Amino acid sequence: MSHSFRARFGRNSLFLHSFEERLGITVFVLALLFVSAQAVFAHEFRVGDLEIGHPWSRATPPGAKVAGGYFTVTNTGSSPDRLLSISSEISAKAELHEMGVSDGVMTMRPVTGGLEIPAGGKVALAPGGYHLMFVGLKRQPKQGEAFPATLTFEKAGAVTVDFAVEGIGETGGMDNHAN
Fold first, then answer.
1. According to the lineage, what is the superkingdom (predicted)?
2. Distances (CA, A) of 83 to 34, 52, 70, 74, 90
3. For the chain, how are helix, strand and coil distributed in percent, rounded to 5?
4. In terms of CB atoms within 10 Å, which end of the chain has fewer, N or C?
5. Residues 41, 177: contact at Cβ < 8 Å?
6. pLDDT per residue over 22-36, tens digit each?
C-alpha cells in the first residue's frame, strides 16, 4: 500500500471496510438459516377459516404397518367445522382415532362422524389423545423426510398438508414451534 493512500484514507480504512463486509455477509447467512429453520420446524397450512399447524409423524421401524399423525387445527371462523376424512399415498387408508383411559386401561378407538373444530377454537391431535393412524403403510416414513396427506373438512373442503417425519421416540416437541 502506498504512503499517499494511507495518508488520504487512514491506515484502518481497509480493515473497517473488510470487517463491515464480513459482518454484513454473516448477518445475511444467519438470516437465511433462521428462515430455513422456521420453514422446517413450523409449517402451517390454511383452508377456509382453518389453520393446520405443524403436521408431523414419527419414523417407523422396519416392518411396521401403521404410523401416527399429529397436528393442531385452529378455527378462526364464527361457525364450527368438522374433520371428515384423511387420505395419503403413504398408506392404504388413514383413520381418525382417540386414545383414552377407561377403568385404568388405555384404549384406542376410531372416531365416527368426524372431529368437530369449534368456532374460535383449537383442537390438538397429539400422542395420547386424538390422532391419525396411517394404516397399511406402503413404505416406512424416515426421519427428516415429509409425506403428503389430504385432510377433508365439512365446510372448508380439502387441503393437502406435508407431515414432517421426526424421530421414532419423539413426543411432539416440534409442535410447540408452530404455536
1. Bacteria
2. 33, 11, 13, 12, 20
3. 25, 45, 30
4. N
5. yes
6. 555 555 555 555 444
